[in-house]
Protein: CoA-binding protein
Amino acid sequence: MSAPTREERTWRGPGALERQAILRRTRTVAVVGMSDKPSRASYFVATYLLSTSPYEVWFVNPNIGEVLGRPVYPSLDALPGVPDLVDVFRRHEDLPGVLDETLALGEGVRTFWLQLGLWHEDVARRAEAAGLQVVMDRCLKIEHARFHGGLHLAGFDTGVIDSRRRRA
Structure:
């Protein structure tokens, strides 16, 4: 089963101010589906989070031992602690299992975040029923940059680069 089209979506996620509040209270992030390939979104997001955010970032992928000089854990339950936010970079069909693994951690996880292109309403409803906040089809890097001065609220740059000519 694949993700529904935008027109078929019925679940509504948190608005901008709620997403901002989620990011402000987050201290630890687990990146599930971390890649060691610089061209992959998880690598790019992790690089950004490590260099720009205050978060402690842990990587999860059973097939990699180290990325960016940091250990990569084989599963969420192997992490050195319980993350506040689980950021998921996995295929649509893997999402129910990632949620199961997240819920098995017990108390502590507050947010289940599915990256751009990931949408699974059944998973979202199950996560919410278990007390988690859910964000789907949003990039953690873009949202963090938006709320911390790197991007305008509408999602574009704040004007550091400008196409207008300066007046003499």
